[in-house]
Amino acid sequence: MHNFNKPFIVNKSFSNITETVKKFNISGDGYFTKKCHTFFKDKYKFANTFLTPSCTSALEMIALLMNIEPGDEIIMPTFTFVSCANAFVLRGARIRFVDSNSKEPNIDVSKINALVNKKTKAILVVHYAGIPCDMDVLVKLIKKHSLILIEDCAHSIDSYYKNKPLGSFGDFSTFSFHDTKNITCGEGGLLVVNNKKYIKRAEIIREKGTNRSSFFRGEVKKYSWIDVGSSYLPSDITAAYLYGQLVNLDIIQSKRIKIFNRYVTNLNKHTRYFKIPNNQPGKKYNGHMFYIILKTKKERSSLIDYLSKNKIQAVSHYVPLHSSKFYEQKHDGRLCTNADLFSSRLLRLPLHPYLKMNDIDYICKNILNFFKI
Ligand SMILES: *Cc1c(COP(=O)(O)O)cnc(C)c1O
Asked: How does pLDDT run across 24-59, given as a tens digit for each residue?
């Protein structure tokens, strides 16, 4: 079976775990957590970084840091993972969902301006499939309305917009190290705080609302409860595993990008039958995902069945959040037709570092067979 995903294992993760366990300190902010923080700050020039138990918890921290209250509004794409919305809905916010653009599932930046009002607090964007959103437009919008920009980079580690790494544009950005992402430790996340105004408080909220981090640095004699907060630190065992992956980032990325490019080479002559992600100037992709867009939902179902019979697992993706059971009554009624289209016609093909070039050729051959090309 050619699985859609298979998390990549590197040996360094095992020796790192042994090393941290032998230090007798596997709670949060240990040796490897600090090494992970430094890795991201050095490589991507992020102002400050905090490992978290998941991308979801990093998003929840942002909602706390922004003091989100009932009635506040957050603008975000409807074609995204539920945690983007939930983190803010938990604090009473109202979500203004935006359609995808017609080319790709990313947010349609031309539809944002009309939704901004006095209650708007932030624009959250997702770089779907590792494909950068139109950052020039977004940065202008943020400046014009003095809003907070949040980048959900769960798909987009090591993607670049005009040579600038994704995750470095936002006041905040978040990453996921779930098994389905390029770099993984099973469950894990990262909060990036680029707006320096929020760094001190992020440290406190992450440590249960206490100044324990200052205490560990010897800045105060005793730590105590000084703000709201929760427990947002992963164990150093998680960080040790993750660090093994991070030092192999270039190897993992080059394997994924090679597979992505092989799909493009094999399929780009057949865009009469289906669409593939198009290459856009100034945007460097990270090989997170390769998808095709079929002409109808029915055709997608038939192709999924056909591939499955040939031992290839291909999968659909998000149900747009504006039409979800939980939110459809709360949504303001605007149509999001591009997102609906991607929801019913987008198909993700297997992409993980264990796939060989002849596996990709086999998968593509089956797709062409299906269309009798
Ligand atoms: C995976 C994902 C998340 C959630 O990540 P977790 O680490 O599982 O919490 C959030 N946003 C997007 C866009 C994702 O793909």
From this structure: 999 999 999 999 999 999 999 999 999 999 999 999
CATH number of the CATH domain containing 49: 3.40.640.10
Ligand 1 lined by 55 (C-beta under 6 Å) = yes
Q: What is the pLDDT of residue 186?
A: 98
H-helix segments, the chain? 11-22, 31-44, 55-65, 82-89, 135-145, 199-206, 212-216, 236-246, 249-267, 297-309, 337-345, 357-370
Helix (H, G, I), strand (E, B) or coil at 16: helix
Assess whether 32 and 115 both reside in one domain: yes
Range of the domain at 202: 11-246
CB distance 20 to ligand 1 below 6 Å: no
Protein residue closest via CA to atom 14 of ligand 1: 154
Does some domain include residue 161?
Answer: yes
- 309 Cα to the center of ligand 1, angstroms: 30
- The closest-lying atom of ligand 1 relative to the alpha carbon of residue 176 is 7
